[in-house]
Every structure is written in structure tokens, then in C-alpha cells.
Write a structure and sequence with these properties.
Helix content: 55-70%
Strand order of the largest sheet: 1-2-3
Number of strands: 3
Bound molecules: acetyl coenzyme *A, oxaloacetate ion
Largest sheet: 3 strands, antiparallel
CATH architecture of one domain: Orthogonal Bundle
CATH superfamily of one domain: Cytochrome P450-Terp, domain 2
Distance between the termini: 45 Å
């Protein structure tokens, strides 16, 4: 057993004891009341899940095991000469709960390289789709085809003790994270680069190798990929992709089935697809206005038109956050260091000054500030990755780190099948009249 796997088991055993004690001694403690409006409106604000890997504060944003994004940028190991944190280090932190050493991160990089083989039938399954298919469709099809490799599914079919679920889930998660960049790069090169593929370089770090397989050797792009893979990795447990992965996993579906399900949620425009929608929206704005550098007044008019057409302003608003997303700020800082004069990036910054007061004045938008998706596309365009339909796949590769670390925890902690109660509107009416009661 590798030392990380062993360490994870020790941590999980410790937490298991604590949780058993919490449930035994405090199991009847009421956390909060649930209102009728919350039940109808997307369960906003209901504390209903336990996710160990990260915790979101509405004003400060995400913390991974207590570390904010600026703290991760300071404290996680980097490649020699690099300034951005390595995603391997964040995966270690989410899994183990402690900052990794350089050696831990190197060990993970080599593990991912060693486990990265993708069988040919996965590429054949992707090839069976028309090139016009959306990259996210190809991505989930690729992940589903890879499910043939699940060690959890095989072991379960043979019959295993529930105490051992975590071990197979760990191996599947490691394998899947190792293989995703290869699948994603295959999709990119098939759809946009004449089906000419680039072999992995096992000596590079996970994100650096991903950039290489996509066809981008610029060190600036590799640094961006490292940062990108870190900041998109996790956003506590209630977001659509993490919640879906967790929910499907609770039926003891393996890591491939669970992750593919989560990715179908990430592919929705109110969630991960918003990153492509932002760039599409900015490019449409430039085309309609006939200028590459719209003024703030022109941006304002375009925002008002978007709202008047009954559409959302992509990249703005959030279900939990109530301030500017620190993931937006991290990307802004990256841009200020590496590409301060980029035209598109400057439009993103002008939008940031224009949109919040307009959304605020609508009176109904709870968070007028930008989220992570408002900035990411402009950085990618700068390095030549202009094919915006691919952006959500990048998000998905990163999100695997968080949701799969969580899935390991779910099985190691023996979490239950998730099955909340639902009611009908007729039941709600009777409840108001005092004729029925919640169980
Ligand atoms: C990685 C991520 O998933 S980050 C989010 C990415 N998604 C986007 O950027 C899409 C644009 N934003 C949105 O659609 C929303 O802000 C969401 C989906 C992110 C959050 O939704 P909610 O929690 O329901 O937001 P909120 O409570 O503020 O919504 C209240 C109203 O404001 C509207 N609103 C919220 N954000 C926006 C926006 N950016 N533009 C226009 N209207 C908005 C809602 O559509 C809703 O309108 P309605 O009452 O007519 O239905
Ligand atoms: O937290 C959310 O609901 C959406 C989000 O920003 C993410 O998943 O990264």
C-alpha cells in the first residue's frame, strides 16, 4: 500500500470514531429549521450534507481544509522555478487534511503518470460520436467507457466486505484522476486539431503534462493550468457537480459512474458551462458593437439588453457567495502579472466595474458580484485556447480532484444512501391547513 493510501486510512479511522461519538451523543441536536420556501427554491441554505474537503463562506469564499486560495498559493509545493501551486498538493490536502511535503507531491505526480493508461475502447467510444458533439458529451462518454476498468465494481460483483469499500474507491479515484487529462486532451485534439494527438510526457507534473498533451508548451500556460486546476477543484459539497457525484456514489455506484453523473451537472449553463457562456457573450457583444474595445457605456447598454431579453449575465451571481469570488480575484492577479495589457482581459475588468451596480439595482439578485467563470475564458484565449466549448472540460478535469477525494471519504466513513423525503404541493396545502405533519 502506498504511504498516502495508508495515511488516508489512519485519518479515516480517527474521524470515524469522532463521528460515531458525535452521532451517539449529539444525534438529536437540531441544526436548523427548514422553511416551505427553501423546499421550493432549490434547498438554498439548508445544511444537509457533510463534505470534509472544503468549506464555503458566503463572504470570504472557499477554504480547502482551512486554507484560502491565497494561502494555497503561498503554501503548496510548486514546480522548480514556478510560482503557482501544484494541484497534486491540493489533492493531498483534501484527502489527508494536512499540507503535503515536496516528496508527497512528487509521489502523487509519479503515481498519476504511472496510472494514466487509457484503453483503446475509450477512444473508440469517443470516436463514435460526431465531431460536432459538445466536448462535455464526449467527456462523459469517455468516462463512462472507462468504467470497464473500475476495481470497485469488479470487487463488489465478486463480493467484498463493506469495510474494504474505501480501498477500491481510492484506487479507482487515483486511476480516474490520472486518466482524465489524457481523455480531455484526446477530445480537444480530435475536435480542434485535426485528430493529431500528442503522447503524454511522464516526467511532467499532472497539469503540466495536461497542457503538453493539449498542445501548449508555453510555460505561462502550464502555470495557468496549475492555478486553474487548483482553484476549480472543489467548492464544498452542495454545488451541482459535487452533490451529484456524492448522491450517485451513495448508491455504491463506482467512481466512474458517480463522476460521470457529476459532469452531466457541470455541463449545465448555470453551473460549469457558464465559463463558455461568458466568452461567447463577450464575443457576441464585440461583434454586435463592431468594436474590440467596448466602452463602459456600451458594456452597460449590452448588459441591460441581455437582461431585457430575459437572459442571465453569465459569470455573475452565486447560490452561496455574496462577495467577489476569490477564484475570480486569483485569476485577476495572475493576469496582472502575466498579461496586464490583454484586450479581452481588460474587457473582463471593465465588465467587473459595470455589472454589479446594474444587477444590484434589479433588487432581486442576491449576489451581483463575479464568480470564477467570469474570468477564466479570457486567460485561456490569451494563450491561444480559443475553442470555448472546451472550457467546461478543463473545469471537469479539475473538479475530479475534489469530488473524488470526497468520494473516498464517503466510503471510508461508511456514509449512507442519500434519500431525502419529498412531498407534493397538495401535501403542502394540507400542511398549511394543519391536516398533515412532516415526519
Ligand atoms: C462554477 C459555478 O457554478 S458559479 C455559477 C455560474 N453560473 C452563472 O454564472 C450563471 C449566471 N448566474 C445565475 O444564473 C445565478 O446567479 C446562479 C444560478 C449562479 C445562482 O442562482 P440563485 O441562487 O437562484 O440566485 P438568486 O437567488 O440571486 O436569484 C434571484 C433572481 O436573480 C436572478 N439572477 C441571479 N443571477 C443573475 C445574473 N447573473 N443575471 C441575471 N439575473 C440573475 C435569478 O435568475 C433570479 O431571477 P428570478 O427570480 O426571475 O428567477
Ligand atoms: O458552489 C456552487 O454552487 C457553484 C460553484 O461555484 C462551484 O461549484 O464551483
Amino acid at each position: 500500500m502506498g504511504h498516502i493510501k495508508e495515511k488516508f486510512k489512519v485519518k479515516a479511522d480517527e474521524l470515524n470514531v469522532e463521528i460515531k461519538d458525535l452521532v451517539k451523543n449529539h444525534g438529536t441536536r437540531k441544526i436548523e429549521d427548514v422553511t416551505l420556501a427553501q423546499v421550493y427554491q432549490g434547498m438554498r441554505g439548508i445544511t444537509g450534507l457533510v463534505t470534509e474537503t472544503s468549506l464555503l463562506d458566503a463572504n470570504e469564499g472557499i477554504r480547502f481544509r482551512g486554507y484560502s486560495i491565497p494561502e494555497l498559493r503561498d503554501n503548496l509545493p510548486k514546480v522548480k522555478g514556478g510560482a503557482e501551486p501544484l494541484p497534486e498538493g491540493l489533492f493531498y490536502l483534501m484527502l489527508i487534511g494536512e499540507l503535503p511535503s515536496e516528496a508527497d507531491v512528487q509521489h502523487l505526480s509519479s503515481q498519476f503518470a504511472r496510472r494514466s493508461h487509457v484503453p483503446n475502447h475509450v477512444f473508440a467510444a469517443i470516436d463514435a460520436l460526431p465531431v460536432s458533439a459538445h466536448p462535455m458529451t464526449m467527456f462523459t462518454v469517455g468516462v463512462m467507457a472507462l468504467q470497464t476498468e473500475s476495481s470497485f465494481a469488479k470487487a463488489y460483483a465478486e463480493g467484498i466486505n463493506k469495510k474494504d469499500y474505501w480501498s477500491y474507491m481510492y484506487d479507482d479515484s487515483m486511476d480516474l484522476i490520472a486518466r482524465l487529462p489524457r481523455i480531455a486532451a484526446y477530445i480537444y485534439r480530435r475536435k480542434y486539431k485535426n485528430n493529431v494527438h500528442i503522447q503524454p510526457n511522464g516526467l511532467l507534473d499532472w497539469a503540466g503534462n495536461f497542457a503538453h498533451m493539449l498542445g501548449y508548451e508555453d510555460e505561462g500556460f502550464k502555470e495557468l493550468m496549475r492555478l486553474y486546476m487548483v482553484i476549480h477543484a472543489d467548492h464544498e459539497g452542495g454545488n451541482v457537480s459535487a452533490h451529484t457525484t456524492h448522491l450517485v456514489g451513495s448508491a455504491l455506484s463506482d467512481a466512474y459512474l458517480s463522476f460521470a453523473a457529476g459532469m452531466n451537472g457541470l455541463a449545465g449553463p448555470l453551473h460549469g458551462l457558464a465559463n463558455q457562456e461568458v466568452i461567447k457573450w463577450i464575443l457576441n457583444m464585440r461583434e454586435e458593437l463592431g468594436t474590440n474595445a467596448p466602452t463602459k457605456q456600451q458594456i452597460e447598454d449590452y448588459v441591460r439588453k441581455t437582461l431585457a431579453d430575459g437572459k442571465v449575465v453569465p459569470g455573475y451571481g452565486h447560490a452561496v457567495l455574496r462577495k467577489t469570488d476569490p477564484r475570480f480575484t486569483a485569476q485577476m492577479e495572475f493576469a496582472k502579472t502575466h498579461l496586464p495589457d490583454d484586450e479581452l482581459v481588460n474587457i473582463v475588468w471593465n465588465i467587473y466595474e459595470t455589472v454589479p451596480p446594474i444587477l444590484e439595482n434589479l433588487g432581486k439578485v442576491k449576489n451581483p458580484w463575479p464568480n470564477v467563470d467570469a474570468h477564466s475564458g479570457a486567460l485561456l484565449v490569451h494563450y491561444g485556447l480559443v475553442e470555448y466549448e472546451f472550457y467546461t472540460v478543463l473545469f471537469g478535469v479539475s473538479r475530479a480532484l475534489g469530488v473524488l477525494a470526497s468520494l473516498c471519504w464517503d466510503r471510508a466513513l461508511g456514509f449512507s444512501l442519500e434519500r431525502p423525503k419529498s412531498v407534493t404541493t397538495e401535501w403542502m396545502k394540507q400542511f398549511i391547513e394543519g391536516k398533515v405533519e412532516a415526519e
